[in-house]
Amino acid sequence: MNQPSNPFNRRNALKGTLALAAAPAIVTSASAQAKVTWRVQSHWPKASGSFNASLVPLAKELEERTKGRFKLTLMGAGEIAKGGEVFNVVRRGVVQMGSTAPSYNPDESELMDQYFGMPGTLREPWEMAHLVKNLGLEAALNEQLKAKGVFMMAEKTYPTELVLKKKIKAGDDLSRIKVRSAGNLIDYLSAAGFVPQRIDGPELYQALATGVIDGAHWGAAVGALSMKLWEVAKFQMKPPILLANDVYVINLDAYNKLPEDLRGIFHGLLEERYFRRTVAYQHEEAQATNSGVSKMGLELVPFPDDVQKRMAQASKDILAKDMQKGAKAKEMGERLLGLMKDLGYV
């Protein structure tokens, strides 16, 4: 029996996963002996919390569930590629899989920015999970990526918060504050008055420490703690500026060449771990924040009202502009707006 070439057909994926759970997989003797090792290029440095809490356990669980037949060789940012380069090395088959942020490659699909997350829209991780998995955003994105030979699956949804070296207050001139950013958050923070800069993860701490930038976002508390940003930037801004998705990008040809049982286990594990990681990450955020405040002199600071007003208007403008990218961007944007209306946000 041939596995459908479309791995993001949710009905088939669910049926396959349930079948695997309900009964032993029926495989040929050849496929039962097949062993696979994939190389995985991460956009996370090996020091990052997500590398150790996401990729390392994924590799361990996959090896356990396949009884050693499917292994992942993990590489930290920059070993072969970093940032936006990860998408391309996976597409070319240099590696079979990578972790990335959709914001690094916005031109690969009209839906990429919405898949990363729209600033100032959704407020709780479950809302993004619902949009991505149940309201069709991930499936629609992957229909567009199919021609490029890759597909994506969300790794987790997490809050994104800005850390600054100096406290700001109402009326401050923000045009002198350079902050590391990416994707549509560049427009969002620019509208608020900041001066966004593009800097990859491995250079982030040094850029903050030497004054190249005055602030940054790398996730929220977990990211800031694991990257040691609070050593040089003591002010964490509230509320979050974005609910974002980290994702896996997977070479479609490599995926389709997997033995059928390994394919089902792999796909099901990624789906399962997305929900587990998204929930667990919220607990980790609380723990990291408590540690920062009690042990590292971290101060939680609300954005001034005038800045929040500019951000609110920027959020509307960014989504409206994004929905002009194409028919699917408009359709998915309307689903996002519908969800926000149901939740009382608009």
Description of the structure:
- With 346 residues, the chain is α/β, with parallel strands linked by helices.
- Helices cover 47% and strands 16% of the residues.
- The protein has helices at residues 10-22, 29-33, 49-65, 85-91, 112-116, 125-134, 137-145, 185-192, 204-209, 221-226, 252-256, 260-295, 305-322, 327-342, and strands at residues 36-41, 70-75, 97-100, 150-160, 163-164, 178-180, 195-197, 215-216, 235-238, 242-251, 299-302.
- Helix 8 (185-192) links the parallel strand 6 (178-180) and strand 7 (195-197).
- It starts with 9 loop residues before the first helix and ends with a helix.
From the structure above, extract its key features:
346 residues; alpha/beta; six-stranded mixed β-sheet; five-stranded mixed β-sheet; 47% helix; globular; disordered N terminus
Q: Report strand order across the widest sheet.
A: 7-6-8-5-9-11
Q: Percent helix among the residues? A: 40-55%
Q: In terms of structural class, how would the helical and strand content be classed?
A: alpha/beta
State which percent range the strand residues make up.
15-25%
Say how many strands there are: 11
> SSE order, as H and E?
HHEHEHEHHHEEEHEHEHEEHHEHH
What is Rg? 20 Å
* Termini gap: 48 Å
Q: Given the C-alpha coordinates, what overall shape results?
A: globular
Count of discrete alpha- or pi-helical segments spanning 4 or more residues:
14
**Sequence stretches where pLDDT stays below 50 over 5 or more residues:** 1-27
Q: What is the residue-mean pLDDT, rounded to a whole number?
A: 90
Q: Which sheet architecture does the biggest sheet show?
A: 6 strands, mixed
